[in-house]
Write a structure and sequence with these properties.
145 residues, 71% helix, elongated
């Protein structure tokens, strides 16, 4: 699998895994990127078709290549969001977030949750997994830290 396809796949997986909670919106840009990407998947294909069809219907064939280029740009916008999410999921956590990751992980384990083994150097994808588990199983007091 190519690096580009792999990154898009990881972005899709990360987008599905990330908990869309308002408590996380102030701390991470993922909520905004995911919302924009999902909106893009819904709205950009119809806008791309509308762009080409309007140019074709008004009969200005000299500008048709430009409208096709704009349509291609509109179609690729959601993929740029997936690519960003895929790159982000593979980034190592900063030290402060890695510490928080390990604290959350230990809190979940002490409550009896069965999780994958903790990573020594976690990535954002592992943080998403632990946050998802924490929001399902713990009270919201863990966000106060």
């Amino acid at each position: 699998m190519s690096v580009f396809k792999d990154t898009l796949y990881k972005g899709q997986h990360y987008m599905q895994r990330w908990p869309m909670k308002k408590e996380l919106a102030a701390l991470f840009p993922e909520n905004r990127i995911i919302a924009a990407t999902q909106l893009g998947f819904k709205t950009m294909p119809p806008l791309a078709i509308l762009t080409v069809m309007m140019q074709y219907l008004y009969g200005d064939m000299q500008q048709l290549p430009a409208s096709i280029a704009i349509a291609l740009l509109l179609i690729t916008l959601p993929m740029q969001g997936l690519f960003w999410l895929g790159k982000r999921s593979k980034e190592l956590l900063p030290v402060s977030l890695a510490t928080w990751y390990h604290e959350l992980y230990q809190g979940l384990v002490t409550q009896g949750c069965e999780l994958e083994p903790a990573k020594k150097n976690p990535h954002y994808s592992e943080l998403a997994y632990v946050l998802e588990s924490a929001f399902k199983r713990m009270d919201k007091a863990f966000m106060a830290k």
